[in-house]
Design a protein that fits this description.
The protein is mainly α and 272 residues long. The chain folds into two domains: 154 residues; 57 residues, no CATH class. The chain contains nine helices and seven strands, in the order ααααααααβββββββα. The strands form three sheets. Strands 1-2-3 form a three-stranded antiparallel beta sheet. It has a two-stranded antiparallel ribbon with strand order 4-5. Strand 4 and strand 5 form a beta hairpin. The longest helix is centred in the first third of the chain and has 26 residues. The protein is elongated and about 80 Å long. The termini are far apart. 29% of the residues are buried.
Length: 272
């Protein structure tokens, strides 16, 4: 029986490496040093392939270091940094300096992992991985029209990624910038705290939390629905229920009311 050949195009090859990286970062048995090492290797591989895919869409020959050797399978293809440089020169795609530094740092560590001994502290590893993941998701959406986040948002893996502070910080900032470029008003999310809550659809672009803004009936400010307490009252006949109403009171006003009641009780207690 003839076996089918295993074939990955650039996109699916990148997706496979990205999946492996996220699996290492969300290891149910706990994330260890080996998981971080493998995640660095995988995210470096994923971004290299995605940059090459964008070059391929301009022309397949641009993936080769020496374009005259296209399509030789034995000739060298461009490095990650060369791919970024070539994208700028021929397609006008400019990565931010922060992204370039992240790619360079990741490449140095990946090369050390692959070819020599290396030393890496936990904070540095998480920082590089978090920024690289954000770069992968942001670049794919902007320049390849690929929503690579979607698969991870279907299960608990996205929630676990957001719990990695370095990813939350980097990708929250990237999504905030994206919303600004699209002319969409953004706010700080009441759930995850990122400034990526899209007020046009009342949902956080990072964590997916959805919530409405509600007016407080006391101070008339708009606050998050989760900050509102409904208070029952009667403005009329308490026996017939005439004038029954609900009041929306924000946490701040409720705290002020309670403080006022406590002071009044204290004063009554010490009256002669």
């Amino acid at each position: 029986m003839k076996s089918e050949p295993i074939k990955f195009d650039l996109i699916n090859n990148a997706k496979d490496s990205l999946n492996h990286a996220v699996d290492h970062l969300t290891n149910p048995d706990g994330v260890e040093a080996g998981d971080l090492k493998k995640a660095i290797r995988d995210v470096a591989h994923a971004i290299e392939l995605l940059l090459k895919e964008r070059l391929r869409r301009v022309h397949p020959a641009f993936i080769w270091q020496d374009v005259d050797k296209y399509p030789s399978k034995e000739a060298f293809t461009v490095s990650t940094l060369k791919a970024a440089e070539r994208l700028f020169k021929i397609a006008g795609i400019s990565l931010s300096e922060e992204y370039k530094k992240t790619i360079y740092s990741c490449k140095k560590i990946r090369d050390a992992i692959e070819h020599y001994e290396f030393v890496l502290n936990l904070k540095e590893a998480k920082g590089i991985i978090g920024r690289m993941l954000s770069l992968i998701f942001d670049f794919s959406k902007r320049y390849l029209q690929l929503d690579l986040e979607r698969e991870f948002r279907k299960d608990d893996r996205w929630k676990e990624l957001i719990e990695i502070y370095e990813f939350w910080e980097a990708h929250g900032a990237a999504l905030e910038k994206q919303l600004s470029e699209e002319g969409k008003p953004a706010w700080e999310c009441p759930s995850c705290g990122a400034s990526a809550f899209d007020l046009s659809i009342m949902q956080c672009a990072l964590c997916g939390h959805a919530e409405e803004r509600v007016e407080c009936d006391v101070c008339h400010r708009e606050v998050w629905e989760s900050e509102i307490t409904k208070v029952e009252g009667v403005d009329g006949d308490p026996e017939t229920g005439a004038g029954f109403y609900d009041m929306n009171i924000c946490r701040e006003c409720l705290d002020k009311e309670r403080d006022s009641e406590m002071r009044a009780d204290a004063q009554d207690m010490w009256k002669p």
